[in-house]
What we know:
Region (Disordered): 335-358
Keywords: Transferase
Number of helices: 16
CATH superfamily of the largest domain: Farnesyl Diphosphate Synthase
CATH architecture of the largest domain: Orthogonal Bundle
Number of domains: 2
Radius of gyration: 21 Å
Largest sheet: none
Protein name: Phytoene/squalene synthase family protein
InterPro entries: Isoprenoid_synthase_dom_sf, Squ/phyt_synthse, Squalene/phytoene_synthase_CS, Trans_IPPS_bact-type, Trans_IPPS_HH
Oligomer: single chain
Number of strands: 0
Order of helices and strands: HHHHHHHHHHHHHHHH
Organism: Pseudahrensia aquimaris
Amino acid sequence: xxxxxxxxxxxxECRKIIRHGSKSFYFASLMLPPSVRxxxxxxxxxxxxxxxxxDEPGASLAALDHLRQRLDxxxxxxxxxxxxxxxxxxxxxxxxxxxSVPMAMLEGFEWDLVGKKYNTLSDVLDYSARVASTVxxxxxxxxxxxxxxxxxxxxxxxxxxxxxxIARDVGEDARNGRCYLPExxxxxxxxxxxxxxxxxxxxxxxxxxxxxxxxxxxxxxxLGVTGIxxxxxxxxxxxxxxxxxxxxxxxxxxxxxxxxxxxxAYTTRGRKLGLMLRSPGNPLNFSGCDTAAPVExxxxxxxxxxxxxxxxxxxxxxxxxxFAELDRRDRASIAKAQANTRxxxxxxxxxxxxxxxx
Length: 358
């Protein structure tokens, strides 16, 4: 029981990391079933912490080596004394997630640190596979869906989301000394990444490159979302909600005339909630998962995670217990806060509102 309470505290800390670090993921996760929500939160928290470390000013390859040591320790069953590491170790063991998957994610972070150039679309997809599709296959694993087709579609949905991120963040990335647009495409428009980074400025030529990237994202997105139909029914709404949020971001970039230098497309909290509420009736429903071969750049992730139905051994029961414990703690904390806001004279609650965060 002591270990269970400790793990519950770790997962509670992971939820805080996600609430502050990735609002889109947090809102979409509210629609996932308890065990999947907590497992995915543990995975995403470790990814978020790792990404933040790699993105710190002055981050070096030594910092990345330290992350690899943390990853090795988690897989050895001796995770570092950090909430994200502890919860992550439990999840990857329970759901049989191969270490090569998060290790590929760290390789993507390494490419950021060394300033890797992306000459072709395939190069950009290689990067996106590492920083985004890795999350997709891990999510599929915690949903206990390990068939080749489902994993391929999960990877491709991750690719599409990352391409949308790149299109949205061209200006922000350039100001941070990075460019993820294919050099070949830039050259065709008389542009290059060095000039873009030195002087981020929107031009119609740059807009055409961003449009082209979004068009690629749309094609991959249409393939990736078919995999939602192969997920457990209880998980489809959450994944569909996330897909809708990213599609909305892409449409906002288009509505802004592809100018992501001077403005950053985003969806408000209210809009995210609206998309979540609309997702059950949204026509992202398919008769079945597309059986096309995986996009070449994600095939290595599919190969690593594919399992026969008999070999899938995920065990989410311990997470259900933790979820119940977290809810109990939330209710106790809220009750205490509400009691503290009551005035001694009237016993009525003050105007301070205490909201429960699921």
